[in-house]
C-alpha cells in the first residue's frame, strides 16, 4: 500500500492546481481524500509564501530604485553647483510678463531635479572684512584707547580736535591705498597731533588726531591702515611724559620710505606735521 500511496501523491503533484481543486473527493478512499486535502493545503501555503517573497522582492527593488534615483539627482545638483556639468541646459522661452507685443522674451533654464533627500553642498562663509573708516582728512581712533590704557593709568579719551593745555606732534607708520586710482604706498611719516586736557577729576584727557595723505598720481585721499603698535606706543609714551611718570624708550621701528611730500600731507596742510609743513600755498 505504501507504494500505491506514493504513486498517488506523485500523481497529484504532477497535476495543475485547478485540476487538483476540481477533483471529486467522494470518488476516492478515505486515505486518498486525506492525501488530496494535504496536497491542496500544501499548494495554498506554497502560493502564500511565493506571494510574500514576491512582495519582499518588489519592495527591495522599489527601495533600491528610489535610492539610486536620489543618488543620481544629488549628483546632478552637485555637478550643477560646482560648475562641472558638461551638458548645457535647453533654454525655454517665455512670453513677456507685461503682456505687450514688444518681442522681448525671457529665457529661463529648467531647474535640476531635486528630491527631498537631496542636500545642496554647504557654502563656505567668507571671512568678514574689517570695515574701513570713511575717507576723511584726519581720524581719531577711540577703538585703541583700551590698549593705551593698559600702560597708562587715569586717562580718558576725548573725541576732540580742539587744542587743550598740552600738545605734541609725532609721526606714525601706516599704509595707504588711493580711493580713486587704487595706487598703494607705505610711509613712516603719518602726521599725528596728540592733545592733552587736564580735568577736575584728576584724570588726564587726551586725543590723537591722525592725518591722512593724498595720492601722488591723482591727488585723491587714501584709505589709511594704521600700524596699531606704533600708535599705542607713541601715544602712551607722550601721556606718561605729561603725567611725570617713568617712560621706557620706545621700540625702534624704522622703515625706509620715500621722502615726505608736504603737498600731499593733510597734517602739513593745517600746520600740524612734525616734519615742518605749514599750509599749502
UniProtKB/TrEMBL annotation:
SMART domains on file: zf-3CxxC (SM01328)
Q: Where is the composition biased (Low complexity)?
A: 94-105
Q: Where is the composition biased (Basic residues)?
A: 122-136
Disordered, as annotated region: 83-136
- Keyword Nuclease in the entry? The reply is no
Which InterPro entries does UniProt cross-reference here? ZAR1/RTP1-5-like_Znf-3CxxC (IPR027377)
List the keywords (alphabetical).
Metal-binding, Zinc, Zinc-finger
Annotated GO MF terms? zinc ion binding
> What is the residue range of the signal peptide feature?
none
Does the UniProt entry include the keyword Cell inner membrane? Answer: no
> Residue limits of the 3CxxC-type domain?
171-271
Compositionally biased region (Polar residues): 83-93
Q: What is this protein called?
A: 3CxxC-type domain-containing protein
Q: What is the lineage of its organism?
A: Eukaryota, Fungi, Dikarya, Ascomycota, Pezizomycotina
